[in-house]
TrEMBL record:
InterPro entries: GK/Ca_channel_bsu, Guanylate_kin-like_dom, Guanylate_kinase_CS, L27_C, L27_dom, L27_dom_sf, MAGUK, P-loop_NTPase
Lineage of producing organism: Eukaryota, Metazoa, Chordata, Craniata, Vertebrata
SUPFAM superfamilies: L27 domain, P-loop containing nucleoside triphosphate hydrolases, PDZ domain-like, SH3-domain
DNA-binding among keywords: no
PROSITE patterns: GUANYLATE_KINASE_1, GUANYLATE_KINASE_2, L27, PDZ, SH3
Domain SH3, chain residue ranges per copy: 231-301
Guanylate kinase-like domain boundaries: 372-552
Protein name per its UniProtKB record: MAGUK p55 scaffold protein 3b
Family: Belongs to the MAGUK family.
Keyword DNA repair: no
Keywords: SH3 domain
Residues annotated as domain PDZ: 142-223
Pfam families with a match to the protein in the record: Guanylate_kin, L27, PDZ, SH3_2
């Protein structure tokens, strides 16, 4: 014991597990710290802890020995032993020969030889003996990278003032970034001993991308190397498809990150205002890729629209009000008076266009005591969304609720106020329209029908999950932080046997099939960027089961939602 009263043990003179045993023996509980010392003694006396200490010692000892294979061909040694058998054998010798002849043991020896004979160190060429005479030795950096089939992960540009080839950006997670030897602003002089000052950047990029094995770069380091920026935690949902090899503006097509509408992207760098670096969420590739920034993508879309090469965005198209097709689930047509008259032409204004580019998102899960998320169902022709919604509510009325619609028609004898409908006067209905109380409304046989915001709040305030099936235009009103809706797009599985069941029409199945496909495609094109899940309805039973599983998941597992919902 030292002056402090604690046991002093030299770690150099004893094994760790022996030290642990000695320490345990020195723990004698006294009156003041009895419980603490008893606890420590119990912990230190655990056999598993002693075993861990022994394993730790063996590994450290093995590491210090710098292990190398005793033999590079254990298989040959085993064959030599088998050839030595001459005359009668002892029991141990017979057992050894039997083991050496078994397929499994031979496979182990073969695996050993493969590893022992392989050189795992990269084979690098010797450093160049000469440097340019006009370069100071301390200003030149020779960088040698071992590259496999993946891109190098760096882009270059030509300095307009000096003509030098400069490293423009380092892709996060790429080979250059992992090496820590190449930085933004470095001047590139040679690649594999070849001068590149006379080559175009695209030619140099081609050389780098096609090089395999080791790449030797002669670099003039940047005067001031920028500090490595901390990786961003910005997540975006892509609202358009992007193919780098079709984008002539990208600085390096091989470095581009292709994505589809709906993909989740983690932006790891926004240092470049034009080209961000991003990864797809869930992608195993560590290297980031280039994506157009919001500002750049919006700028070129405005230009294309101005030049007439880009169709008018859906948000600016004049609304149409046409007769509802027989297959439509609703028998009344929606009014859109507040959006402008159907026949009135509208000229798109390129300065006030909301282009679909990215939407910032974050994970969200309703907290205990928080109102459930609103479930919004939209469906193309033949999806029969209303029937699907009614079945969910009927099977579990305590958990799910229906937003009771309003109507101006007279109440029938079997109907109850607030159950089938809220029955109000036409004057009251029109007043509510003017006050913006309906998410959608329409007229059928001179009677008005509509779904109000208040009816949705009534269900949610009872801590029930409210299911509404609406025309997709209503999403503009519902998609807010107030409701945090989860949007499900229901589309029928289109096949000829099903068409004849769904459609009781006089025209042939071929025309039915075409109409259903067009309906689904139009809805997906116009509103697919707002959809969280696409449910392909093959039959009512499987669709109901899939929807019920999905509804459980929405309330129990984190979902990606617009970041603005949680900031507002």
């Amino acid at each position: 014991r030292g002056e402090s009263g604690f046991l002093e043990i030299s770690a150099d003179s004893r094994w760790l597990h022996e030290t642990l045993a000695l320490l345990t023996s020195q723990l004698h509980p006294d009156a003041n710290h009895k419980e603490d010392l008893v606890f420590l003694k119990d912990v230190f006396s655990e056999k598993s802890l002693g075993y861990l200490m022994k394993i730790h010692e063996k590994l450290k000892q093995y590491e210090q020995q710098s292990p190398t294979p005793v033999l590079h061909s254990a298989t040959c040694l085993a064959e030599d032993v088998e050839e030595l058998q001459n005359g009668p054998l002892e029991e141990d010798e017979r057992e050894l020969l039997f083991l050496l002849s078994t397929p499994h043991f031979k496979a182990v020896l073969s695996a050993h030889d493969t590893v022992a004979q392989k050189n795992f160190d990269p084979v690098l060429p010797p450093l160049p003996d000469d440097l340019d005479d006009d370069l100071e030795e301390e200003s030149v950096k020779i960088v040698r990278l071992v590259k496999n089939k993946e891109p190098l992960g760096a882009t270059i540009r030509r300095d307009e003032a000096t003509g030098a080839v400069i490293v423009a950006r380092i892709m996060r997670g790429g080979a250059a970034d992992r090496s820590g030897l190449v930085h933004v602003g470095d001047e590139l002089r040679e690649v594999n001993g070849n001068l590149i000052s006379h080559k175009r950047p695209d030619e140099i990029s081609q050389i780098l991308s096609q090089s395999q094995g080791s790449i030797t770069l002669k670099i003039i380091p940047a005067v001031v190397e920028e500090d490595k920026v901390k990786e961003s935690r910005v997540y975006l949902r892509a609202l358009f498809d992007y193919t780098p090899f079709e984008d002539k503006a990208t600085p390096c097509q091989e470095a581009g990150l292709p994505f589809k509408r709906g993909d989740l992207l983690q932006v790891v760098s926004q240092e470049d205002a034009t080209w961000w670096q991003a990864k797809r969420v869930g992608d195993s590739n560590l290297r980031a890729g280039l994506i157009p920034s919001t500002q750049f993508q919006e700028r070129r879309l405005r230009y294309r629209m101005k030049m007439g090469s880009l169709p008018t965005p859906a948000s600016l198209r004049a609304p149409t009000c046409k007769s509802v097709l027989p297959l439509l689930r609703r028998s009344f047509r929606l009014r859109r008076d507040r959006q402008g008259s159907p026949g009135e032409p509208q000229t798109p204004d390129a300065n006030h266009t909301d282009f679909l580019i990215y939407e910032e998102v974050t994970h969200y899960l309703p907290r205990p005591g928080e109102r459930p998320r609103l479930i919004v169902l939209i469906g193309s022709l033949g999806a029969r969304v209303t029937e699907l919604k009614q079945k969910v509510i009927t099977e579990n009325p305590r958990r799910y609720g229906l937003a009771v619609p309003h109507t101006t028609r007279a109440r029938k004898g079997h109907e109850r106020e607030g159950v089938e409908y809220h029955f109000i006067t036409k004057a009251a209905f029109e007043s509510d329209i003017q006050n913006g109380k309906f998410i959608e409304y329409g007229e059928y046989k001179d009677n008005l029908y509509g779904t109000s915001l208040e009816s949705i709040h009534r269900v949610l305030d009872q801590n029930k999950v409210c299911l509404v099936d609406v025309q997709p235009e209503a999403l503009k009103t519902l998609r807010t932080s107030e409701f945090k809706p989860y949007v499900i797009f229901v589309r029928p599985h289109i096949s000829f046997p099903e068409i004849t069941t769904i459609c009781k029409c006089k025209f042939p199945p071929e025309e039915d099939l075409h109409e259903l496909k067009q309906s689904a495609e139009r809805m997906d094109k116009s509103y697919g960027h707002w959809v969280d899940y696409v449910l392909v309805k093959e039959d009512p039973v499987s669709a109901l089961a899939e929807l019920q599983v999905l509804l459980d998941r929405v309330q129990m597992e984190p979902q990606w939602v617009p970041g603005s919902w949680l900031r507002s």
